[in-house]
Amino acid sequence: MAEAYIVDAVRTPVGKRGGALASMHSADLGAHSLAALMQRTGVDPGAVDDVIMGCCDTIGSQAGDVARTAWLVAGLPDHVPGVTIDRQCGSSQQAVHFAAQGVMSGTQDLVVAGGLQNMSAIPISAAMLVADQYGFTTPFAESPGWRARYGDVEVSQFNSAEMIAEKWDCSREEMERYALASHQRAKQAIAEGRFTNEIAPVQLADGVFDTDQCPRDTSLEKMAGLDPLAPGGRITAGVASQICDGSAAILLASEQAVKDHNLTPRARIHHLSVRGDDPIWMLTGPINATKHALAKTGMSIDDIDLFECNEAFASVVLAWMKETGAPHEKVNVNGGGIALGHPIGATGARLMTTMLNELERTGGRFGLQTMCEGGGQANVTIIERL
Protein backbone atom coordinates (compact mmCIF):
# COMPACT_ATOMS: atom_id res chain seq x y z
CA MET A 1 0.00 0.00 0.00
CA ALA A 2 1.16 3.54 -0.76
CA GLU A 3 2.59 5.67 2.03
CA ALA A 4 0.99 8.79 3.47
CA TYR A 5 3.43 11.44 4.65
CA ILE A 6 2.94 14.33 7.05
CA VAL A 7 4.52 17.34 5.40
CA ASP A 8 3.73 19.93 8.06
CA ALA A 9 1.34 20.72 10.89
CA VAL A 10 0.33 23.99 12.49
CA ARG A 11 -2.17 25.28 15.03
CA THR A 12 -3.44 28.40 16.68
CA PRO A 13 -2.59 29.06 20.30
CA VAL A 14 -5.51 27.76 22.36
CA GLY A 15 -7.73 30.47 23.79
CA LYS A 16 -9.50 29.94 27.10
CA ARG A 17 -13.28 30.25 27.35
CA GLY A 18 -14.16 33.89 26.86
CA GLY A 19 -10.51 34.58 26.05
CA ALA A 20 -8.45 35.79 23.11
CA LEU A 21 -10.27 33.83 20.37
CA ALA A 22 -13.80 33.98 21.79
CA SER A 23 -15.09 36.63 19.39
CA MET A 24 -13.43 35.14 16.31
CA HIS A 25 -15.86 33.68 13.78
CA SER A 26 -15.41 29.92 13.54
CA ALA A 27 -14.67 30.06 9.81
CA ASP A 28 -11.97 32.68 10.39
CA LEU A 29 -10.58 30.56 13.22
CA GLY A 30 -10.20 27.58 10.88
CA ALA A 31 -8.97 29.79 8.05
CA HIS A 32 -6.07 31.01 10.15
CA SER A 33 -4.52 27.54 10.46
CA LEU A 34 -5.25 26.69 6.82
CA ALA A 35 -3.58 29.85 5.53
CA ALA A 36 -0.59 29.34 7.83
CA LEU A 37 -0.20 25.73 6.66
CA MET A 38 -0.20 26.71 3.00
CA GLN A 39 2.27 29.51 3.62
CA ARG A 40 4.64 27.31 5.64
CA THR A 41 4.70 24.45 3.15
CA GLY A 42 4.91 26.61 0.04
CA VAL A 43 2.61 24.15 -1.73
CA ASP A 44 0.40 25.48 -4.51
CA PRO A 45 -3.00 25.42 -2.77
CA GLY A 46 -4.62 24.72 -6.11
CA ALA A 47 -2.97 21.28 -6.07
CA VAL A 48 -4.82 20.23 -2.90
CA ASP A 49 -7.37 17.49 -3.59
CA ASP A 50 -9.59 18.01 -0.55
CA VAL A 51 -9.89 19.73 2.80
CA ILE A 52 -11.24 17.60 5.64
CA MET A 53 -11.88 19.27 8.99
CA GLY A 54 -13.44 18.10 12.21
CA CYS A 55 -16.02 20.19 14.04
CA CYS A 56 -18.77 19.37 16.51
CA ASP A 57 -21.99 21.28 17.14
CA THR A 58 -22.16 22.55 13.57
CA ILE A 59 -24.69 25.29 14.12
CA GLY A 60 -24.38 29.08 14.04
CA SER A 61 -20.90 30.11 12.90
CA GLN A 62 -19.97 26.43 12.54
CA ALA A 63 -22.85 25.51 10.24
CA GLY A 64 -22.93 25.04 6.47
CA ASP A 65 -19.84 22.86 5.98
CA VAL A 66 -17.46 25.11 7.88
CA ALA A 67 -14.40 23.30 6.46
CA ARG A 68 -15.30 24.55 2.99
CA THR A 69 -16.09 28.01 4.32
CA ALA A 70 -12.82 28.24 6.25
CA TRP A 71 -10.82 27.37 3.13
CA LEU A 72 -12.59 30.12 1.16
CA VAL A 73 -12.27 32.64 3.98
CA ALA A 74 -8.52 31.94 3.92
CA GLY A 75 -8.52 33.23 0.33
CA LEU A 76 -7.69 29.82 -1.12
CA PRO A 77 -8.86 28.45 -4.52
CA ASP A 78 -12.57 27.97 -5.20
CA HIS A 79 -12.09 24.66 -7.00
CA VAL A 80 -10.69 22.88 -3.90
CA PRO A 81 -13.57 21.23 -2.00
CA GLY A 82 -14.00 20.84 1.74
CA VAL A 83 -15.94 18.56 4.04
CA THR A 84 -16.75 18.78 7.74
CA ILE A 85 -16.90 15.59 9.81
CA ASP A 86 -18.11 14.78 13.30
CA ARG A 87 -16.71 11.89 15.30
CA GLN A 88 -17.21 13.88 18.46
CA CYS A 89 -13.95 14.60 20.28
CA GLY A 90 -12.04 12.53 17.71
CA SER A 91 -13.30 14.54 14.74
CA SER A 92 -10.01 16.04 13.58
CA GLN A 93 -8.05 12.87 14.31
CA GLN A 94 -10.55 11.11 12.06
CA ALA A 95 -10.00 13.87 9.51
CA VAL A 96 -6.34 12.90 9.46
CA HIS A 97 -7.35 9.26 9.00
CA PHE A 98 -9.62 10.04 6.06
CA ALA A 99 -6.94 12.22 4.49
CA ALA A 100 -4.29 9.53 4.92
CA GLN A 101 -6.62 6.88 3.54
CA GLY A 102 -7.26 9.00 0.46
CA VAL A 103 -3.53 9.24 -0.12
CA MET A 104 -2.83 5.58 0.69
CA SER A 105 -5.57 4.46 -1.71
CA GLY A 106 -3.84 6.23 -4.56
CA THR A 107 -6.88 8.36 -5.36
CA GLN A 108 -5.48 11.58 -3.88
CA ASP A 109 -2.05 13.15 -3.59
CA LEU A 110 -2.37 16.22 -1.37
CA VAL A 111 -5.01 16.44 1.34
CA VAL A 112 -5.39 18.93 4.16
CA ALA A 113 -6.80 17.59 7.44
CA GLY A 114 -7.59 19.54 10.56
CA GLY A 115 -10.25 20.84 12.85
CA LEU A 116 -11.73 23.89 14.49
CA GLN A 117 -13.96 24.76 17.41
CA ASN A 118 -15.11 27.97 19.05
CA MET A 119 -16.59 26.66 22.30
CA SER A 120 -16.97 30.16 23.69
CA ALA A 121 -19.45 31.01 20.92
CA ILE A 122 -21.04 27.56 20.47
CA PRO A 123 -21.22 25.72 23.81
CA ILE A 124 -20.61 21.97 23.89
CA SER A 125 -23.77 20.00 22.99
CA ALA A 126 -25.38 23.21 21.69
CA ALA A 127 -26.83 21.25 18.78
CA MET A 128 -28.60 18.96 21.24
CA LEU A 129 -30.01 21.94 23.08
CA VAL A 130 -31.39 23.32 19.85
CA ALA A 131 -32.93 19.92 19.16
CA ASP A 132 -34.57 19.96 22.56
CA GLN A 133 -35.14 23.53 23.66
CA TYR A 134 -36.68 22.47 26.93
CA GLY A 135 -33.60 21.15 28.72
CA PHE A 136 -30.36 19.21 28.75
CA THR A 137 -31.77 15.97 27.46
CA THR A 138 -30.10 13.64 24.99
CA PRO A 139 -32.27 13.53 21.85
CA PHE A 140 -30.93 10.21 20.57
CA ALA A 141 -31.85 8.59 23.89
CA GLU A 142 -35.50 9.28 23.04
CA SER A 143 -35.25 6.68 20.28
CA PRO A 144 -37.42 3.63 21.11
CA GLY A 145 -34.72 1.45 19.57
CA TRP A 146 -32.05 3.00 21.78
CA ARG A 147 -34.16 2.55 24.90
CA ALA A 148 -34.90 -1.05 23.97
CA ARG A 149 -31.17 -1.77 23.76
CA TYR A 150 -29.72 0.39 26.54
CA GLY A 151 -32.69 1.26 28.75
CA ASP A 152 -33.23 4.65 30.33
CA VAL A 153 -29.65 5.01 31.62
CA GLU A 154 -28.44 8.59 31.40
CA VAL A 155 -25.69 8.97 28.79
CA SER A 156 -23.20 11.47 30.17
CA GLN A 157 -19.45 11.98 29.93
CA PHE A 158 -19.48 13.03 33.58
CA ASN A 159 -21.16 9.79 34.62
CA SER A 160 -18.65 7.87 32.53
CA ALA A 161 -15.71 9.66 34.14
CA GLU A 162 -17.10 8.80 37.60
CA MET A 163 -17.71 5.18 36.63
CA ILE A 164 -14.15 4.87 35.34
CA ALA A 165 -12.71 6.44 38.49
CA GLU A 166 -14.60 3.92 40.61
CA LYS A 167 -13.84 0.82 38.50
CA TRP A 168 -10.12 1.56 38.15
CA ASP A 169 -9.82 2.86 41.70
CA CYS A 170 -8.70 6.34 40.74
CA SER A 171 -8.93 8.33 43.94
CA ARG A 172 -9.68 12.03 43.90
CA GLU A 173 -6.17 12.72 45.20
CA GLU A 174 -4.59 10.58 42.46
CA MET A 175 -6.55 12.43 39.80
CA GLU A 176 -5.67 15.81 41.26
CA ARG A 177 -1.98 14.91 41.33
CA TYR A 178 -2.25 13.91 37.68
CA ALA A 179 -4.03 17.19 36.84
CA LEU A 180 -1.39 19.23 38.66
CA ALA A 181 1.33 17.47 36.66
CA SER A 182 -0.51 18.37 33.44
CA HIS A 183 -0.43 22.06 34.35
CA GLN A 184 3.19 21.91 35.45
CA ARG A 185 4.25 20.17 32.24
CA ALA A 186 2.34 22.64 30.07
CA LYS A 187 3.80 25.66 31.84
CA GLN A 188 7.30 24.23 31.51
CA ALA A 189 6.74 23.54 27.80
CA ILE A 190 5.58 27.12 27.26
CA ALA A 191 8.51 28.53 29.24
CA GLU A 192 10.98 26.49 27.18
CA GLY A 193 9.35 27.46 23.88
CA ARG A 194 8.45 23.90 22.93
CA PHE A 195 5.25 25.03 21.18
CA THR A 196 6.81 27.90 19.23
CA ASN A 197 7.34 25.94 16.01
CA GLU A 198 3.79 24.60 15.91
CA ILE A 199 1.88 27.80 16.70
CA ALA A 200 0.79 30.32 14.07
CA PRO A 201 0.31 33.58 16.05
CA VAL A 202 -3.02 35.35 15.60
CA GLN A 203 -3.12 39.09 15.01
CA LEU A 204 -5.90 40.57 17.12
CA ALA A 205 -7.09 44.16 17.50
CA ASP A 206 -5.20 44.50 20.79
CA GLY A 207 -2.00 42.73 19.77
CA VAL A 208 -0.56 39.38 18.77
CA PHE A 209 -1.88 36.24 20.45
CA ASP A 210 0.83 33.58 20.45
CA THR A 211 0.68 31.67 23.75
CA ASP A 212 -1.79 29.08 25.04
CA GLN A 213 -4.03 30.66 27.65
CA CYS A 214 -5.38 27.70 29.60
CA PRO A 215 -2.56 26.50 31.93
CA ARG A 216 -3.30 27.56 35.49
CA ASP A 217 -1.31 28.43 38.58
CA THR A 218 -2.97 25.84 40.77
CA SER A 219 -2.12 23.48 43.62
CA LEU A 220 -3.36 20.35 45.29
CA GLU A 221 -4.80 22.53 48.03
CA LYS A 222 -6.82 24.62 45.56
CA MET A 223 -8.14 21.56 43.75
CA ALA A 224 -9.06 19.87 47.02
CA GLY A 225 -11.42 22.78 47.72
CA LEU A 226 -13.47 22.31 44.55
CA ASP A 227 -16.95 20.83 44.75
CA PRO A 228 -17.51 17.54 42.90
CA LEU A 229 -19.65 17.70 39.77
CA ALA A 230 -22.01 15.13 41.32
CA PRO A 231 -22.86 14.85 45.03
CA GLY A 232 -20.40 12.47 46.65
CA GLY A 233 -18.43 12.07 43.41
CA ARG A 234 -14.72 12.23 42.73
CA ILE A 235 -14.75 14.25 39.50
CA THR A 236 -14.33 18.02 39.78
CA ALA A 237 -13.66 20.76 37.25
CA GLY A 238 -10.03 20.56 38.31
CA VAL A 239 -9.56 17.09 36.81
CA ALA A 240 -11.54 17.76 33.63
CA SER A 241 -10.49 19.25 30.29
CA GLN A 242 -11.07 22.96 29.78
CA ILE A 243 -13.58 24.57 27.43
CA CYS A 244 -11.65 26.63 24.90
CA ASP A 245 -11.20 27.76 21.30
CA GLY A 246 -8.71 26.83 18.59
CA SER A 247 -7.90 25.25 15.24
CA ALA A 248 -5.19 23.14 13.63
CA ALA A 249 -4.26 21.93 10.14
CA ILE A 250 -2.01 19.19 8.74
CA LEU A 251 -0.86 18.54 5.17
CA LEU A 252 -0.64 14.91 4.05
CA ALA A 253 1.03 13.91 0.81
CA SER A 254 1.71 10.89 -1.38
CA GLU A 255 5.21 9.89 -2.42
CA GLN A 256 4.52 11.29 -5.88
CA ALA A 257 3.36 14.62 -4.45
CA VAL A 258 6.49 14.78 -2.31
CA LYS A 259 8.57 14.46 -5.49
CA ASP A 260 6.42 16.73 -7.64
CA HIS A 261 6.34 19.57 -5.11
CA ASN A 262 9.88 19.09 -3.77
CA LEU A 263 8.64 18.52 -0.23
CA THR A 264 10.49 17.20 2.82
CA PRO A 265 8.13 15.05 4.91
CA ARG A 266 8.42 15.21 8.67
CA ALA A 267 6.72 11.89 9.40
CA ARG A 268 4.79 9.01 7.88
CA ILE A 269 1.55 7.40 8.95
CA HIS A 270 2.53 4.02 10.39
CA HIS A 271 -0.92 2.88 11.54
CA LEU A 272 -4.47 4.17 11.80
CA SER A 273 -7.57 2.52 13.19
CA VAL A 274 -10.76 3.25 15.08
CA ARG A 275 -12.73 1.04 17.45
CA GLY A 276 -16.03 1.20 19.31
CA ASP A 277 -16.84 0.37 22.92
CA ASP A 278 -19.83 0.46 25.27
CA PRO A 279 -21.58 3.84 24.65
CA ILE A 280 -22.77 4.08 28.25
CA TRP A 281 -19.22 3.78 29.57
CA MET A 282 -18.31 5.99 26.59
CA LEU A 283 -14.81 7.11 27.61
CA THR A 284 -13.16 3.68 27.89
CA GLY A 285 -12.65 3.40 24.13
CA PRO A 286 -8.89 4.20 24.09
CA ILE A 287 -8.08 1.10 26.15
CA ASN A 288 -9.22 -1.55 23.67
CA ALA A 289 -8.42 0.68 20.68
CA THR A 290 -4.79 0.92 21.79
CA LYS A 291 -4.54 -2.81 22.40
CA HIS A 292 -6.05 -3.42 18.95
CA ALA A 293 -3.58 -1.06 17.25
CA LEU A 294 -0.57 -2.64 18.92
CA ALA A 295 -1.79 -6.13 18.00
CA LYS A 296 -2.35 -5.08 14.37
CA THR A 297 1.14 -3.62 14.07
CA GLY A 298 2.95 -6.25 16.12
CA MET A 299 4.26 -3.49 18.35
CA SER A 300 4.41 -3.26 22.13
CA ILE A 301 4.04 -0.35 24.50
CA ASP A 302 7.83 -0.29 24.80
CA ASP A 303 8.19 0.40 21.06
CA ILE A 304 6.39 3.74 21.41
CA ASP A 305 8.48 6.78 22.33
CA LEU A 306 5.66 9.24 23.03
CA PHE A 307 1.94 8.99 23.73
CA GLU A 308 -0.84 11.55 23.44
CA CYS A 309 -3.95 10.31 25.22
CA ASN A 310 -6.50 13.10 25.39
CA GLU A 311 -7.19 14.34 28.89
CA ALA A 312 -10.97 14.57 28.73
CA PHE A 313 -10.80 13.66 32.41
CA ALA A 314 -7.90 12.50 34.56
CA SER A 315 -9.66 9.20 35.23
CA VAL A 316 -9.69 8.38 31.49
CA VAL A 317 -5.91 8.64 31.11
CA LEU A 318 -5.16 6.99 34.47
CA ALA A 319 -7.33 3.98 33.62
CA TRP A 320 -5.77 3.80 30.14
CA MET A 321 -2.25 3.83 31.59
CA LYS A 322 -3.14 1.12 34.10
CA GLU A 323 -4.60 -1.12 31.39
CA THR A 324 -1.95 -0.58 28.70
CA GLY A 325 1.16 -0.12 30.81
CA ALA A 326 2.05 3.17 29.15
CA PRO A 327 4.42 4.99 31.55
CA HIS A 328 3.43 8.47 32.70
CA GLU A 329 6.86 9.81 31.77
CA LYS A 330 6.02 9.18 28.10
CA VAL A 331 2.36 10.28 28.22
CA ASN A 332 1.25 13.86 27.51
CA VAL A 333 4.72 15.10 28.31
CA ASN A 334 3.83 18.74 27.51
CA GLY A 335 0.51 18.65 29.34
CA GLY A 336 -2.89 17.74 27.94
CA GLY A 337 -6.50 18.87 27.81
CA ILE A 338 -6.67 19.55 31.55
CA ALA A 339 -4.00 22.23 31.19
CA LEU A 340 -4.01 23.14 27.49
CA GLY A 341 -7.73 22.85 26.85
CA HIS A 342 -9.86 20.64 24.62
CA PRO A 343 -11.39 22.53 21.65
CA ILE A 344 -13.27 19.37 20.76
CA GLY A 345 -13.37 19.54 16.96
CA ALA A 346 -9.72 20.63 16.76
CA THR A 347 -8.10 18.58 19.52
CA GLY A 348 -7.15 15.55 17.44
CA ALA A 349 -5.13 17.63 14.99
CA ARG A 350 -3.72 19.74 17.83
CA LEU A 351 -2.47 16.62 19.62
CA MET A 352 -0.85 15.28 16.46
CA THR A 353 0.83 18.62 15.78
CA THR A 354 2.26 18.67 19.29
CA MET A 355 3.30 15.00 19.17
CA LEU A 356 5.14 15.50 15.87
CA ASN A 357 7.11 18.45 17.22
CA GLU A 358 7.95 16.64 20.44
CA LEU A 359 9.22 13.58 18.56
CA GLU A 360 11.52 15.88 16.64
CA ARG A 361 12.66 17.69 19.79
CA THR A 362 13.48 14.49 21.66
CA GLY A 363 14.64 12.36 18.73
CA GLY A 364 11.91 9.77 19.25
CA ARG A 365 10.78 7.52 16.43
CA PHE A 366 7.19 6.44 17.07
CA GLY A 367 4.31 8.39 18.58
CA LEU A 368 0.88 6.97 19.41
CA GLN A 369 -2.19 9.17 19.72
CA THR A 370 -5.60 8.16 21.02
CA MET A 371 -8.65 9.83 22.49
CA CYS A 372 -12.05 8.97 23.93
CA GLU A 373 -15.04 9.99 21.84
CA GLY A 374 -18.80 10.27 22.21
CA GLY A 375 -20.68 7.08 21.53
CA GLY A 376 -17.92 4.97 23.08
CA GLN A 377 -15.35 5.28 20.27
CA ALA A 378 -11.61 5.86 19.99
CA ASN A 379 -9.17 6.54 17.18
CA VAL A 380 -5.53 5.43 17.30
CA THR A 381 -2.84 6.88 15.06
CA ILE A 382 0.82 5.83 15.13
CA ILE A 383 3.23 8.10 13.30
CA GLU A 384 6.92 7.56 12.56
CA ARG A 385 9.24 10.54 12.59
CA LEU A 386 11.46 10.75 9.52
UniProtKB/TrEMBL annotation:
Q: Which UniProt keywords apply?
A: Acyltransferase, Transferase
What CDD domains is this protein classified in?
A: thiolase (cd00751)
Which superkingdom does the taxonomy of this entry point to? Bacteria
Please report the stretch or stretches of sequence annotated as the Thiolase C-terminal domain: 264-385
Which SUPFAM superfamilies does the record match to this protein? Thiolase-like
What PROSITE patterns does the entry give?
A: THIOLASE_2 (PS00737)
The record's similarity note reads: Belongs to the thiolase-like superfamily. Thiolase family.
InterPro entries associated with the record: Thiolase, Thiolase-like, Thiolase_C, Thiolase_CS, Thiolase_N
The name on file for this protein is Acetyl-CoA C-acetyltransferase
Q: Where is the Thiolase N-terminal domain?
A: 5-256
Pfam families hit by this protein: Thiolase_C, Thiolase_N
